## 1
Amino acid sequence: MAKPRRLQTALVKTSCMHGLLINLPAFRAMRSPPSGAAVALSYLYSLAIFAIALVSRLWLDPYMLAGFPYVTFFPAVVITGFVFGVRQGILVAFLSFFASWYYFIPPYHSLEPTFGALLAMSLYLFVVITDLLLIFLVMKAYRAESEARAENQRMADEREVMARELDHRLKNIFAAMNAVINLSVKHASSPEDLAKGLRERLSAMGRSNLLLRGLGEDEEATLEAVIVQALEPFGLVGTARLSLEGPKTAVSGQAVIILSLILHELGTNAAKYGALSVPDGTVSVRWSWEDQQNEEPAIRIAWTERGGPPPAAPQGMNQGFGSTLLTRLLATAQGRSVSEFPSEGAEVTLYLPLSSLNPGIK
């Protein structure tokens, strides 16, 4: 029992000492640069400490034996260095050097460089340089410890943020998967149709996560990249059948998955009933930022098909799995859609708040 108590006592003492040190002006200055007024005040306090040391030595002089000219100046240098910093300590050491030489080393009231005076002052310089060097090393060690502590805290905060982001993203992915599975089961005509639909839609989600995983630490997915990866299975990317146009727009993790599923469904619908069901059909995707009256800014994504068979609304996005999935996914992002079916080809316009697309966009 004695050892744990001694260890606990030692830890308490260490903690108290650390708390005392970090509140001293010299150690506070290493954490954050002091103001000009604070620096000037520290030098005034240092001069006051020197004045106290000099007055104390003059008062003690009648009672002191010869050979103790620095008895009050050594503590003054150490206290000033620890409390206010090495530079202030150097100032006090410099003033103490001449004060002790002039007042307390024979011949008195003179700075005559006799052998005895030079020897005495050499001893003084050795001691104060050693003291100030030790103080400098202590402060350097404290600075290194503070930087290491700050770095460890930063890394811990980053891990916490990453863990929360991973947890949030996994919840969103499983929620999206649950919705896709439920809707696929409801609208599948056969087990084979269910399996094929699930494979395609889960593959779309998988490609969106691969897109996110391939990003660097400070990189974000762009809307154009999301469109390209979503439509890649339909053989449109890099051909004249696909036209993309719009400003560079960053997209957050959850929005990447939502848009990937929506665009995949639009592509699947076009391949079954629309422009992608014929060799000469084309798809155009245009997006732009829009200010909506009494609402927050939104991004408008226009999907336009041309060159395919005339669309029929019941077979398009107005009914069935695609329509239901589109509505539910947009609802999770506070978005909406408008679908039209002119004879030239299906037209679907998506509206999503910029904050849902990427919380960093103002």
Note: The two ends are 61 Å apart (CA to CA).
## 2
Amino acid sequence: MRRIESIRRWLLRDPVQSSALAAFWLLLSVALLVAGPSAARGLPALAQMLLPPGLMAAQAGASGPAEKMVMPVDVAHGETRYATQVLTPVPARGFPDWLTQRVAFIREHGEAALSASGQTDAPRPAIAIVIDDVGIDVEAARAAIALPRKITLSFLPYPPDATALARVAARRGHQVLLHMPMEPEGRENPGPDALFTTLTADELSERLNRAFQRVPNAAGMNNHMGSRFTQDREGVIAVMRALSARHVFFLDSRTAPQSVAAEIARIIGVPSGMRDVFLDDAVAPGAILQQLAETERVARAHGVAIAIGHPHPDTLKAVAAWSRDVELKGFELVDVQTAIGLQAERDARSFARR
């Protein structure tokens, strides 16, 4: 009402402007008759042309829009690359759809219903054995390829015969991994074209591309050495982004207890798992058999276990003999990709119980 009263007083005070307003309404009526409702979209601009400034302005009031406020945030960086830092933002994908569905099913019906529904894929404890460092010794590589095909073989990218041996392993039915050299703590040389914390994201990606070209048919990757690199968040983020683009998985060999590789891989959406047991830190038949027994214990306790060994003669002999009886003991020998999926499902079950 106040707005109408102010317009009425303005018209009575100024006949010229009153004529302008009459012309405005006449023009608007003709436009609406000719163009229909679409002409109304030009009404604000037409009003600004024909009416005096301020006539159409909203009256001041307490309900007007609030001004935007920008608050600067100053994040202090650590003095060293190992100090506490803010992570580079990455897209988090969470659990894949099939795991999300299982979490919902478990929360609604309980784990017993999950088993009764037939949704479990591995009723027996599953064990995956990975033999890495393959390719330097050709005879040792051939002996590893002669193992049961459920044994996963991980090839270093730099030996001259790595490409040919990886192709043979894939034809024999083994799952093949890239055993990617990474920077260790100390001065030990991880090998040519290794990943170092001093490299840029583009340089890391280029080295990964060359390595994957050298190991054809690689379904995933695990780290060779890398006790320093796998603790470096910036470097690991760059690597996991490159693996995500290739749609391959990552197995953390866990050469460093503080490794962030598997954690960041899952945040970015790269399927990832972690080694549970090293078979041959001590290269002796008795010690290797003890570690195989430890692998069985972990599998019974957690439903799945991943063990890593190397192509030493004693390791290959022990794994060959052990694998003949593994199913009779109640275990299922699986490739490492299957084991990583089972680890993820185990984590989903744990999450569902919260």
Note: The domain at 97-352 is CATH 3.20.20.370 (TIM Barrel).
## 3
Amino acid sequence: MKPFTHGVGRSTGRSGASLVSALKAAALAAVVAVSLTACSGSGDSDSGGAAGGAEGTSAADFGTSGKDLGFKVGIMTGTVSQGEDEYRGAEAVIRRYGSKQIRHVTYPDNFMTEQEAMISQILNLAGDKNVKAIVVAQGVPGTMAAIKRVREFRPDVKFLVYEPHEDPHQIAEYADLCIMPDQLKRGETIVRLAHDMGAKTFVHYSFPRHMSQEMISRRAKIMEDECTKLGMQFVFANAPDPTGDQGLPGAQKFILEDVPREIEKYGNDTAFFSTNCGMQEPLIRSTVDNHAIMPEQCCPSPTHGYPGALGIAISDEDAGDMGKIREAIHAKVDAAGNSGRMGAWPVSVGMVAIDALTEHAIAVVNGTAGITDQATVQAELQKAADASVTVLPFEGKPNYYMFLIDSVIF
């Protein structure tokens, strides 16, 4: 297993120790989602005062940190099926600070047709007067509308959004802070990595809903241009939308069946990439089984698709130990005879983002950091990743940052 440097940052070679300490504990049995009555102020057991220090609380309510924040942070993620890394990242933060200080809700799997349900979850969080900041990961369609509605009755709540799906220029007008992997730069680095792995063809799976998003469509064009520069063939392959009639199972079945078809047309030196999280597991499985190439996932991480695709069982003791997980992936890829043709980032980008944004939100509410301070955002990302992270503003937006972490090759 070896690192791949994008030329904009350098891997420290460490295994994500700060994330490990947060994730090694056994998975949280349940995340408490409490119904609120905004008018009467009842609902949460501590709704009469600050989150910590309220009557009936104890040190155990403050998680492993033992820290009384004096307020709450809300986190909304997808479910395990839509975005397991973000979900697990929220669980880790809850273990650190306790479920009485961190409130975690999820948006529906079919968020495109259930936007009101998603918006209601955010309104529910904001209805708790002790919630001072809300982390949204990922910022699926409807996030901007939810923020607008919250601003009508809680203009004080800080919104920190990871991986916004909506127009970047518009969401930046409403969210206090947005961060996402540098998708535009990744348009270059992913293709270069595929080329270095021996790829002659690059197959890009997506669907109209994703391609209507500015960052994804621009990245695809950059990928196509980079393929031309490197003498590679770029192939755009239409895949079913997992939120459509066939659902996620239909989209996954398509990937399992189509990868061999593409390899039959273009050969084994074909690199595959998909814009959808739910497609990563079948894409990894089929790529390894057919000895093709997969440089990175849409959300690059050792835990995104690899364990399920390769049959890697991760014990509670090893959960979050990215070094051990990477070693297990490398062993499986090597055993399948596909070494040097699979890649990812060394840590979970979703978990890193949740960790960093929550810590940043706490600092902002405490008045020890500015919400858009680039140096602080970068420091929190590097602390969570325990690796070098490059952070740059998106097209001059002072509250929208793009980041990169160097890749590893299995």
Note: Residues 247-266 form the longest helix (20 residues).
## 4
Amino acid sequence: MSGIDLSVVVPTYRGADALPSLVAELDAARATLGLGAIELLLVNDGSPDDTEAVLDRLAEQHDWVHGIDLLRNHGQPVATMCGLAHARGALVATMDDDLQHPPDQLPLLVDELRRRPELDAVVGSWTRDEGLFRDAGSWLHGIADRLAHGTPKGFRHSAFRVIRRPVVEAMVAHQTRTPVVGPLLTQVTTRIDNVDVRHDDRTIGTSNFRTAHGVRAVVTNFIQGSTLPLRVMSGFGLATAAVAVLAGVVFAARALWGADTPPGWLSTFLATVFFGGAILFQIGLVGQYIHVIVREVRGAPRWTIRRTTDDPPLATDQPPLAPGSSEPPPPGAAEARPAATSDRG
């Protein structure tokens, strides 16, 4: 056993300004957790700003803070899975880097697991009020999750969660290159529940979320974790075939009875366009599944790590970072960077 009671995993992208405040607030919250050893794993997901240098300086200031620098931007789900794979705690928490998941709410999640030992994980939830498009996207994402993965109605996924060690190990063992973390959690265990927490407005930096990200999340939830779209398209094809047979029987009967059946170019045109479009859509859908299959079977690394802050640190003579501030790395710091490493999972 590692002796670590809680690991906190935070994937970060362009988080240089927010990370000092996040670490400061987590440091203050540690005293209220009632736990022993705690570690913080900050996973830099290929940020183009000074996040890597900030991670080095935070790790130098706090022996419980560790940084992982990925070679490129893999996306939040992969960065989260990388952090889970490196976490050593008996409990593992995940949260965002922008302080919208308040560190002082983390004890609520930990206490709920203590109070209910039958649970394997708890997920923070709150009343969504993030604007029309974000709220609509969350609603559609929830419907997709229930349809594709059988998530219980009323349960809300979020990135603010605490998970027991056996579940973390089972999630990491999936070895997928295209993870969807929330549904993966509910696939591993059904002993999971929501806990009401506070959700703060973002005060540092700007959100990296775009409408396209929300649409992509809904599509990913369907395609990468379920065969539901294929089953729907199969049912659609069967239904249209049945309609065609029924129409054939009707028109054959009309002809036998001598009923006049005038030709109609418009109905023929619309039927051709509709079913032609449906066929193209189904081909594209199958192509998406083939793309996911190729990514999974070609054996590429799940993530690629440039270095960690436990490697020899970057040379620096700058003073410690104050919460809410970030400064560029010192000249020549990049020259001291160790060789790249990778995790093939």
Note: Strands lie at 4-12, 37-44, 65-70, 91-94, 121-125, 161-164, 192-196, 305-308.
